């Protein structure tokens, strides 16, 4: 009768364990839906429900940057760049943390051997000081397990899963930043090349102008002061060549570091051959900001905070755990130790309700709620900064493009001014200062025109990154 009752008790306990196990198996991938900040008018002068910019953010980087030499540099950077490698190691760390958290649902199992040797002073013969001994040797498998009745372990795993997804977004953020940095550096390098070419062409013209002024001086038409001022302008322009060459060398080295290569030369095309994407316009939908990795990171951090708050709440409820579950052999000696007669099993289970934990549970819950509020504020601020960034880029691009027509007219007028003043100087109708001023202004306008093109290319890269482009 006792054996039958014992079997029934064991069956009931096993059924309870299985039922609790099913309750514990919740889906940790179902993250909480968090409050969404107000995105109305987030992007200044934006046009809602726009398809143009949405497609801009989803264009693969190889399509957005058609320059084959730039594509080669970006590909090399994604493969060898150290920041990308660091991002991958963070993903590996997060994967390990998630694996450990998922494993918390499973029992801890180990092999255990034990020798219990006891000496007593009371026994069959009466009272002998340490005159009686007992010995039990045991060997078997032990296990312990905590049931996740209230979702505490599941909430902790959700937090780890959100952290893992966060590292994936971090990798995307590093990728978009790296692509943007390489593209901007590449365009800057080509701009320096063009400025150097323009400067050298101007030097040739200044040399001819100096020769002309020298001839006029020899003819007594101008003073030596005019010749010396022309030479000074020539020397000043020649000095700028060294600065530009230094900038080119430094820019090449910077690109090499970005792509994980030792400093050296960088193969490139010409800035005048670069085409600015035609989709650069003001049709921005705030929904496209959701493609930004930093926005997704902020949202995932908020979801992680929600999960940790749930875990802190669940800590107030009772905990059901199997403290000891062992199956093996136990005997007083080692002779025939592994015989069926020495089989032994033990199970110790319990339900624990926290009553007084020295304020730890309440304190953890308050901390979790405060961290949740902080994460929500960070999420809102991240969206706000994203809107500002896109707004600034669009207006800066629009302003830069507006300069093109006027810059072309300025350069055209200055080219004519240089020609006219040189002819007037030869005819004695103009002085040398007008010629020098016209030449200096022309060089400045030509360099500014290169900067305008660089600025527009840079803004196109910035908008692509600001909308989350470059992850494909």
UniProtKB/TrEMBL annotation:
<dbReference type="InterPro" id="IPR003423">
    <property type="entry name" value="OMP_efflux"/>
</dbReference>
<dbReference type="InterPro" id="IPR010131">
    <property type="entry name" value="MdtP/NodT-like"/>
</dbReference>
<keyword id="KW-0449">Lipoprotein</keyword>
<protein>
    <submittedName>
        <fullName>RND efflux system, outer membrane lipoprotein, NodT family</fullName>
    </submittedName>
</protein>
<dbReference type="GO" id="GO:0005886">
    <property type="term" value="C:plasma membrane"/>
</dbReference>
<keyword id="KW-1134">Transmembrane beta strand</keyword>
<keyword id="KW-0472">Membrane</keyword>
<keyword id="KW-1133">Transmembrane helix</keyword>
<dbReference type="Pfam" id="PF02321">
    <property type="entry name" value="OEP"/>
</dbReference>
<keyword id="KW-0812">Transmembrane</keyword>
<keyword id="KW-0564">Palmitate</keyword>
<comment type="similarity">
    <text>Belongs to the outer membrane factor (OMF) (TC 1.B.17) family.</text>
</comment>
<feature type="transmembrane region" description="Helical">
    <location>
        <begin position="12"/>
        <end position="29"/>
    </location>
</feature>
<dbReference type="GO" id="GO:0015562">
    <property type="term" value="F:efflux transmembrane transporter activity"/>
</dbReference>
């Amino acid at each position: 009768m006792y054996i039958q009752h014992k079997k029934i008790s064991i069956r009931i306990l096993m059924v309870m364990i299985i039922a609790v196990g099913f309750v514990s198996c919740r889906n940790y991938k179902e993250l909480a839906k968090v409050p969404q900040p107000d995105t109305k008018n987030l992007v200044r002068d934006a046009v809602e429900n726009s398809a143009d910019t949405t497609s801009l953010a989803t264009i693969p980087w190889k399509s957005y940057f058609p320059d084959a030499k730039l594509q080669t540099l970006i590909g090399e950077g994604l493969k060898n760049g150290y920041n990308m490698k660091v991002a991958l190691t963070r993903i590996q760390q997060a994967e390990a943390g998630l694996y450990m958290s998922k494993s918390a649902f499973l029992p801890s199992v180990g092999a255990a051997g034990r020798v219990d040797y006891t000496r007593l002073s009371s026994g069959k013969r009466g009272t002998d000081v340490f005159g009686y001994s007992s010995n039990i040797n045991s060997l078997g498998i032990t296990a312990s397990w905590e049931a996740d009745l209230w979702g505490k372990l599941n909430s902790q795993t959700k937090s780890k899963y959100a952290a893992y997804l966060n590292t994936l977004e971090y990798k995307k953020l590093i990728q978009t930043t790296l692509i943007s940095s390489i593209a901007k550096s590449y365009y800057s390098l080509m701009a320096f090349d063009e400025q150097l070419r323009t400067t050298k062409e101007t030097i040739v013209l200044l040399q001819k102008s100096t020769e002309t002024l020298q001839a006029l001086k020899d003819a007594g038409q101008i003073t030596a002061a005019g010749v010396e001022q022309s030479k000074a302008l020539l020397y000043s322009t020649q000095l700028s060549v060294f600065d530009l060459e230094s900038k080119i060398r430094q820019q090449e080295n910077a690109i090499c570091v970005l792509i994980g290569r030792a400093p050296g030369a960088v193969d490139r095309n010409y800035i005048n051959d670069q085409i600015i994407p035609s989709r650069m316009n003001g049709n921005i939908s705030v929904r496209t900001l959701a493609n930004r990795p930093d926005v997704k990171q902020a949202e995932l951090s908020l979801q992680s905070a929600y999960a940790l708050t749930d875990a802190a709440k669940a800590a107030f409820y009772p905990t059901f755990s199997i403290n000891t579950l062992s199956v093996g052999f136990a005997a007083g000696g080692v002779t025939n130790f592994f015989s069926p007669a020495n089989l032994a099993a033990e199970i110790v289970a319990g339900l624990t309700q926290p009553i007084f934990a020295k304020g730890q549970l309440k304190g953890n819950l308050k901390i979790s709620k405060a961290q949740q509020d902080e994460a929500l504020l960070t999420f809102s601020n991240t969206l706000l900064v994203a809107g500002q960034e896109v707004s600034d880029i669009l207006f800066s691009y629009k302003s830069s493009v507006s300069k093109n027509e006027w810059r072309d007219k300025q350069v055209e007028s200055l080219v004519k001014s240089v020609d006219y003043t040189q002819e007037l100087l030869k005819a004695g109708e103009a002085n040398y200062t007008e010629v020098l001023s016209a030449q200096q202004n022309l060089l400045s306008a030509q360099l500014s025109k290169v900067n305008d093109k660089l600025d527009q290319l840079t803004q196109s890269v910035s908008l692509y990154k600001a909308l989350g482009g470059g992850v494909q």
